[in-house]
Amino acid sequence: MTGAGWPISRLFRLRGWGCRASLVLLAVSVFVPPCRVRSAPPDLPPSPLRVIPQPKSLVPGTGDLVWSHNSPWILQAPAPDARLWQAASEIFGSPNGTFITNAASDFRLQLGIPASATFPTGPHTPAWATNAEGYFLSVHTNQLRIQSATAQGAFYGLQTLAQLRSSGDNHFHCPAVVVADWPSLTFRGVHWFPSASGAAMDQRLIDHVFSAFKFNHCVIQCEAARWDSHPEIAMRNSISKPALRQLVAACRQRFLEPIPLVNLPGHAEWMFRHGQNTNLIEDPQTPYACCVRNPQTVAFLESVLTECLEVFHPQTFHLGFDEITLRGRFPNPDCPFCRAAPATTLMTESANHWADWLAARGVGTLIWGDMLLGPGEAADATSAKTTLEATGRRAGLAKTITIADWHYVWDADRRSLDALHQAGFPTIATTWSEPVNIYRFSQAALASGSGGLLQSTWAGFFPDERELTREINQFAAYILAADYAWSGRTNPPAQLGYDAQAVFLQAYAGASTNRLN
Asked: Strand 316-320 to strand 257-264: parallel, antiparallel, or no bridges (unpaired)?
């Protein structure tokens, strides 16, 4: 390649889960002294409101709710949730929260004059209440209420409130509004590389961008980390395991499920840095792919993957498997382990082996999809030489593996997703930096029934804040991907009504993005 939340298999079973799970109603109840009401002038319409991702329904009201920085608030829930508590404290701007156990098994967050609320059930239950990540936000001049079936949904309600809310000298205010919202795609992820110099940037992205715009997964490509078992391949800017562990914890703190990515067997230059491990190279003339049948390769990868599992404790692991035959000979006719096998056998055999190895540890498997596609099956990223070869690979690969189907051209369509679905694979549509690519392929994901969208980042193995200048288009693309994946909106990028780059920079800086200019 030019460069998951629940286990992926379980994730797909939960799509359209309805009301069968126990309901959680989050009502952020901030009980304040009588709120000071500031109504909009009667001769002026309310300022237009912008929320990204665009909610399914947003109805402005009249007036504002105003509360002070020390206002008390109440969270009612079946059990405490530290992540939700922290988010409510930050967004309400007050540490004065009270937790109440809710015997009705729902979450309630409420601010201002208390209002009675029940969680909707029955044949006419609204869509937000039947979705694990849906929420309902109601703001009036004397109270605010967030309701959700889960703590995660309530967290997303708070993120919407954070965009609508403004702050004054010693108070916050939010325009009256009613929002009913839920995601269109279940998996909404961002792929990125960590580095020692970029850890502070990554933390800021997690706090101010990824979680704020309602992503729920981070695919962290970390093969270049400093592994204890193989210090010989570390680079000067390789992230340490403690720092990587901090990023993993930061993701989970913000309801972002971290997925490690260790690329094999192609793009395996990371194994051979500083001239090391040359005995593991499939084609010694081109140190690009590793020899998948060499027992020493298997032992090397087991040691790295085991360390990675200890850092992430993931539910899903991304193993790469893209562009395996891009460079060098795979198989190498001189390789004593692989020379008798075709590339298709080597690929499927290796992928199935590692999927079984991960499954034995309770972890699902994700790989890239280009090696499973042939000419004419997509607009780009078709690495199989023929459709017959691609079909054979799809037939030989375990159907428990989820395919991250990446296509980066502007005219990406659903052909590849349909082919993969027909072969029995769950999929995640994967996009890059071209705005029309993100728009079109997100629409393809929705139309084909794909499980979600993954926004990839290719800004080098060791990116840091310098890339915000050099690769700003890649970072601005996060906003577009978040919007399309959650909202499912059909407007092309030119009709969204905002500048994604400006929105990203405001959010990254911690500034409000709540009003249209």
From this structure: parallel
For 464-513, what is each residue's pLDDT tens digit?
999 999 999 999 999 999 999 999 999 999 999 999 999 999 999 997 65
SS3 for 356?
A: helix
How many residues would you count in the chain? 517
Please tell me the total count of domains within the chain. 2
User: What value does the mean pLDDT take over residues 362-377?
Assistant: 98
Residue 385 sits in a domain whose CATH number is: 3.20.20.80
* β-bridge pairing 316-320 and 143-148: unpaired
Q: Is 368 helix (H, G, I), strand (E, B) or coil?
A: strand
Same domain, 174 and 199: no
Q: How does DSSP assign 58-122, residue by residue?
A: EEEEEEEEEEETT--EEEEESS--HHHHHHHHHHHT-S-EEEEE-TTS-EEEEEES--------S
User: Which of 253, 242, 228 has its CA nearest to residue 199?
Assistant: 242
192 phi/psi in degrees, rounded to 5: -155, 165
Helices (H), 320-434: 343-359, 387-396, 415-422
Whether residues 60 and 138 fall in one domain: yes
66 closest CA partner among 167, 160, 163, 158: 167
Task: Give the pLDDT band (50/70/90) at residue 157.
Answer: very high
Last residue of a domain, one of 154, 181, 208: 181
Does any domain span residue 1? no
Q: What does the angle CA 328 – CA 330 – CA 332 come to, to the nearest 5 degrees?
A: 85
Burial 195-211 (b: 16+ CB within 10 A, else e): bbebbebbebbbbbbbb
Q: What is the pLDDT of residues 432-462, one digit of tens each?
A: 999 999 999 999 999 999 999 999 999 999 9
Same domain, 176 and 190: no
Would the pTM of this model clear 0.85, i.e. be above it? yes
Domain extent, residue 153, equals: 28-181
